[in-house]
Amino acid sequence: LALPATSVNSDRPGELFARGGPSIQATDPWDRKWIEQFTAVGDSYSVGLGAGDAIKASSQLELNTGCFQYSHGFPNIVNMDDMIGENSDRHFQYLGCSAALTDAIRDKQVPKMQQSQAVLLSAGGNDAHLSTLLNYCVYQWSAIWPWTCDGELSKAEAGVNSDNYLKSMTAISSLPDSYGLINSLYIQNLLGTEKFEAVG
Question: What distance in Å separates the CA atoms of residue 178 and residue 4, rounded to the nearest whole number?
C-alpha cells in the first residue's frame, strides 16, 4: 500500500483505505464516506473481464469506452461495498482496460485521472504474458501450441525486465501525492522478481 505523507494507515485486516489528507480528522478509522473521488486503473484483472455483467456509465460512474468493465471486477465491488460507505457525491472513474500493457496504463489511463482520494491499480499481467503463463504452468486449459512452462516463464521474466516495462512501472508507481491513497497489485508480487522494487 503506497501512501502519501499526509495519510494515516492501519495494519488491521480489511483496512484497504486509511483516512488521509491534511483536512481530514481521523475520528472513526472505519468510516470512509469522505471518499468522493475514487479511481481504478489497470488491466483485465482490474476490469474483471467476464465476471458478472458488463456495466454502463452513469453520472457517478465514468468508464473507459471499449474496455469491458464488469460488475464483479474488484474495483467495482469495492466502490459498491459498505466498507467505503454510501456517498451520493462520490464519483468513480473506472479506467482499467482489458489487455492493457503498462505503457498503455501510463499513457492512456493515468492522464485521464482526476485528483482522487483513493486509487486502485493493477498492472503488469499482460507484459508478463500472464494468461499463457497460467495456461502452461498451472491450469493447462489448452496445449495446442508447442509451448512449455519454462518457455513462458522466460517470456514473463523478459517482459518484466524490459526497459519499457520498468520505465512504465516506475512512472505509474510514482503518481504524485495528490492522487491520494494507492492500493496496488503488480505482477512482481506474483512472480517474485526483485528488479523493480514496487510497493503493493
Answer: 8
